[in-house]
Amino acid sequence: xxxxxxxxxxxxxxxxxxxxxxxxxxxxxxxxxxxxxxxxxxxxxxxxxxxxxxxxxxxxxxxxxxxxxxxxxxxxxxxxxxxxxxxxxxxxxxxxxxxxxxxxxxxxxxxxxxxxxxxxxxxxxxxxxxxxxxxxxxxxxxxxxxxxxxxxxxxxxxxxxxxxxxxxxxxxxxxxxxxxxxxxxxxxxxxxx
Length: 193
Hints:
5 strands, single chain, alpha/beta, 193 residues
């Protein structure tokens, strides 16, 4: 049996390209939506557990199945110990042959290098943006003007953080945090109802 394993990192990503590449080659396809660095991959683990000697695990590319060179080599060795081979379609590699295993090991190392290089570049870019004063992350839910208006409302006797927050469509905690940032003082105490 040839079992195809497909992985995408998020629900927004589509596995269509992988499905098109593996559909005609495999007896069955198993799709997983999970980050490559997740500690547990239930679909992958379930598929590996049910493979039998003589079966082949088929993936589109090595980084769709494995996190690192070490992970890839160890996992393939476990498969080989059970007489299960790995086929990487995008590279036309079958680890059942010595040449295929050699090429696979080199490709796994290059995939890890590429992932590490991308991560380092991303971190460098974020750090450069921070040094230039760029605020990273999600946009603020309240502008300075809105925070100022909310502070004015809260200065009235009997005003409640949660009630004022509802006027702006945010939680009381978000409003209190934004006002504290704006005033650069400890956070406004929230009243509970």
